[in-house]
Amino acid sequence: MANTHLYKPNLVIVISGPSGSGKSTVIDSLCKTDETLQLSVSATTRNPRPGEVDGVDYHFLTRAEFEKSIQQGKFLEWAEYGDNLYGTLKSEIADARDAGKDAILEIEVKGSLQIREQQQDLAPARSILIFIVPPSFATLEKRLRRRDTESESELKQRLDIAKSEVLEIQHYDYWVSNPQGGIQQSVQQIQTIISAERSRIDAKLIETLNPLLGIDSVD
Ligand code: 5GP
User: Fold this and answer.
1) Domain residue spans in the chain?
2) Which of 17, 43, 131, 216 is deepest in the core (most CB within 10 A)?
3) pLDDT averaged over every residue in the chain
4) Is the pTM of this model over 0.85?
């Protein structure tokens, strides 16, 4: 997928969207079809759902452990969602870079905005913010009920958060629809966005080109 001979992975691809918008399924599919993507495994204080594995789905931490990591400056971003804390460890982004891959993050809106604000610190890495728009709130509710992983009050809380999250879409670079039964369409849209972003002419590309052209540095 990448323009292999010139492209040096340096993207931090942020995928957001309301709970139930299908983010995880879309990201799973993206990672399976594109070996240049590496999923950033988030840390959280929420309890594992049945089948979730520590270190694979999340790094499950106690609140005390999470707060200690905040104090130690280990997070690129973190946010409270519902009654729990969620955050991206800087080490996850470094691991992706060391592996020569673009990092892909599934995070909520407040965390995404923190990443956007840190654009300077991320350099030469570059963030791209993509928002998955669900077909309707009724569909979201139906999906969350079918998933059956939250209590009634948690579900209501997630739907309320969903509404406030959609209002923040103006801070994102791209939106992608996730129509009912249309996961493949969302995956293809995101693949197209990533492919275009990998073809951007930026400082990193110039850095790659210079030695090829026999140029040491450019003012
Ligand atoms: P869930 O409990 O459904 O796994 O996740 C709840 C919300 O937290 C989702 O919107 C998910 O995208 C978000 N989330 C997951 N990991 C992170 C993270 O590292 N940082 C932030 N800010 N949000 C996250």
Assistant:
1) 11-40+101-211
2) 17
3) 91
4) yes
